[in-house]
Amino acid sequence: MNIDSSILLWINGHHTEWLDWLMWNISRPTTWIPLYVLLVGLVIWRYRNNWKTVLLILVGFGIAIGLSDYTCSGILKPWVCRLRPTHEPALEGLIHLVRGYSGGLYGFCSSHAANTMACALLFSLIWRNKIATASLMTWVALNCYSRMYLGVHYPTDILCGLLIGSLWSALAFVLLQRLALPSSSHHAVDEAAQQGDS
Question: Taking the chain (198 residues) in consecutive chunks of 10 residues, what is each chunk's mean pLDDT?
């Protein structure tokens, strides 16, 4: 708890007006709607000759993200009951609030971290492109940092969320390999990615 609080207060304490604006908008799910549309569009484009595969992949995304969110918000938060930093009496007056935002009562673990990781990792496993993977992991890192900057999650909330998102996306990918990504198609995807990276 002491280490968690110290790291959080350091991140939250290094605030400026422009960072307040930036982190607030990074943390808003609606900010990233164009990215979600792009990812769906890329899946449709790559597998446009097989709509069954497209549908199964999109269902796979829904399962990975949905289960990540439910694990965090539906199971762990009400079970662990760990107060968010913004609701922790010991940190009262120490947290810099942006636009008065304090989030829900409990924060372990971070749904933002879990959901973004589930989406980013699953797409990276399917797409197999270094630039796309690096870009998506940067997006995940920005989202996670914004949650700590806003003071609504401890670092361990974030780490646990990342682990949960990684687990569900990996399981979804294994399922998709069996149902939607036949070996020949999967090798074709890998070859296309290698040509794109070269």
Answer: 93 96 96 96 94 95 97 96 96 95 96 97 96 97 98 98 98 92 50 45
Within the chain, where are the H helices? 2-13, 17-27, 33-46, 51-69, 77-80, 111-127, 130-149, 155-179, 183-197
The pLDDT of residue 186 is 45
CB contact set of 97 (below 8 Å; sequence gap of 6+):
86, 150, 151
- Whole-model pTM: value is 0.88
Token representation of residue 31: 């900010």
**How far is the C-alpha of 87 from the C-alpha of 6, rounded, in Å?**
16
Residues 163, 170: Cα–Cα separation, whole Å = 11
Q: Is the peptide bond before 160 cis (omega within 30 degrees of 0)?
A: no
Q: How far apart are CA 191 and CA 182, in angstroms?
A: 14
Closest CA to 84 of 150, 13, 164, 14: 150
